[in-house]
Fold this sequence. Notes:
By secondary structure, this protein is an alpha+beta fold. Helix content is 29%, strand content 27%. α2 (35-42) crosses α14, α3 packs antiparallel against α7 and α3 crosses α14. Keywords: Aminoacyl-tRNA synthetase, ATP-binding, Cytoplasm, Ligase, Nucleotide-binding, Protein biosynthesis.
Amino acid sequence: MARYTEHRTIEIKGMRASQFHISTAKETPNDAEIASHQLMLRAGLIRRLGSGLYSWLPLGLRVVRKIEAVVREEMNKAGALEVLMPSIQPSELWQESGRWEKFGPELLRLHDRHNREYCVGPTHEEVITDIARREIKSYRQLPLNFYQIQTKFRDEVRPRFGVMRAREFIMKDGYSFNLGAESLQQSFDQMHVAYCNVFDRMGLTYRAVEADSGSIGGAQSREFHVLADSGEDAVVYSTEGEYAANMEKAVAVSQGTRGEASQAMETIDTPGVHTITELATQLDIDESKCLKTLLVQGVETPVIALVLRGDHQLNEVKAEHLPEVASPLTMADAAAIKAAANCDAGSIGPVGLSIPVIADADAAKMSDFVCGANQNDKHLSGVNWDRDLPEPIVRDLRNVVEGDASPVGGGTLKIVRGIEVGHIFQLGDTYSQSMGASVLDENGKPQVMLMGCYGIGITRIAAAAIEQNNDDKGMIWPMAIAPFEAVICPINMVKSEAVKEAAEALYNELKEAGVDVLFDDRPLRPGAMFADMELIGIPHRFVVSDKLLANNEIEYRDRTAAESVIIPRADVLSKIV
Ligand code: ATP
Ligand code: MG
Ligand code: MG
Ligand code: MG
């Protein structure tokens, strides 16, 4: 027994700052645009090696390992089995699936010394399907869900924001193998729950939204977005109902292509208002919220649509500048208008309906955005929708404009910015069919397996968490993924033996209680020490000083609190565990 214990891996929690590598900087690096990237560099979590390539320093790697641990636990709990696949993949597999041709320049291709072709895996559907077709022979083995936590490479067009959109990054990718659609749906639902658990445990504010399932009709696809103003994606959701979708999907819905959505708007009086400036003044909206006027040829009469934008370019497009368009608009017309108006892709549907794109923080707070009208002195506000309305959008828009639309339920549409941290997707038989992955069913007949795929951006989560939790002093880590859970800051330990003793005792006590604690035993002035620890964003701080010791007290500061409090020495543990 003793021997066994000696050789067991044990998790050592706690660290002395003097034996760790803390490398902080005051200056904001000028090549970093967003808070997370700046703070990760300043606090010494990451270092840049090249475009989209980052090294994780000890402090940053602690965060990554904690994110991995949460994900791993929830995957295991949901019955998924961990595997590890090579990151270098032979081209033959990609030829089989057809992706060797289809995948664009994001795929990094290379040759070995025998001139054989490979790629550095951007994802692992081919490899896992190859494993499945060799390993799984009978329906009795199903369902199975394999996952790995592994390094991916995507030669992104625009790597940016540090590890947020890197070229090399760590992903958790999982793949389920199922017999029949019902079983696939079950695995998908299980992963949905597991993903919610993961992001709940990490204390992140997020939303699961419907996403495009691409060419696979009817299959489910859901993205998980951490909400943050700096997010590259726009997500659309209802304030009351359950509806939530990413922008691409929401636009598809607004075009009525699925026949399941509609928008109803109220008209508001806007006499004499024809331009952005006039409208902004009348509604008391800051013009910098970028209302953009588009005159779009609607079904029968022109529709003025205002598109909210975040790039601070106010382009007003007048009717006479627009190309001649058919009624209803075709996609080609929409594209021509987009070009003329220099407006966001997706903001004009084939029926001339505009979906407002809100790209800045203030604009996102406006629940009631203004959208357009085709009557003099009227604009539309308060866009609503109803998923069940079977009529094509075209009619509803006309009705609304004519003022007799039937009221639609489902709350008010809101648009916020999001960072995609996870994506679950029903692949169906796309890979199993082309790569021949089937099992024998109860009757001994071969059946192609169905697949689901489930991704989480491990390293992106670190950046997303910072985007959502930071202040002017630095990062504010949620407990589950903080590099350290608590820090002990002794004041003047060099001179005071009593402080040294008390701090050592507290360090041991916290370690024994299982707290991942940092003991800042560096010979630093209190101000510098506090600044470092606030920058690093450790959730709990305990200060030990001669003065406090005299009263048997400790100064405690929650990183999210405005003030520190003096607490009895005996109450320390109750603050954390
Ligand atoms: P994006 O839309 O941001 O390009 P994606 O849809 O291409 O992401 P998926 O193929 O769904 O990404 O991969 C699963 C997860 O991997 C994503 O949800 C995201 O969290 C993460 N991820 C994707 N690309 C990157 C990247 N370049 N850097 C860091 N993480 C990434
Ligand atoms: Mg991508
Ligand atoms: Mg995406
Ligand atoms: Mg995705």
